[in-house]
Amino acid sequence: MYGRKVSFDLKPNSLNDFNRRQEADIVPILRRQKGFQDVITLVTPDKKHVQAISLWDKAESAEAYDRAGFPEVTKLLASVIDGKPRVETMEVATSTIHKATNK
Fold it and tell me: How far apart are CA 1 and CA 13, in angstroms?
């Protein structure tokens, strides 16, 4: 299993708009990607900083999304994020979803 962590800052008072876009547009894009497993989105208490962690079956699937789906997601979020998203990729060491999907 492979993970992508995307971090970015939200523009002031844009969390509700971000959440709407996440549910209506971004999650459907992710679900169409081969190898997508799950996404977890975290926001700081001050509602200024977001970290989204997506889980993938393997590195190749995450890399394919980075080339094909992520540019579209970045465009969808352009009006609510401040600056460029920062992306880190890594192997998943442990995960309860990984155990659940391998039963």
Answer: 35
* Residues 25-75: tens digit of each pLDDT: 999 999 999 999 999 999 999 999 999 999 999 999 999 999 999 999 999
Domain 2-92 CATH (choose: 1.10.10.60, 3.30.70.100, 3.40.50.300, 3.40.1390.10): 3.30.70.100
Got the DSSP string for 9-57? EEPTT-HHHHHHHIIIIIHHHHHHSTTEEEEEEEE-TTS-EEEEEEEES
pTM, whole model, 2 decimals?
A: 0.87
User: Strand pairing partners for 82?
Assistant: 9
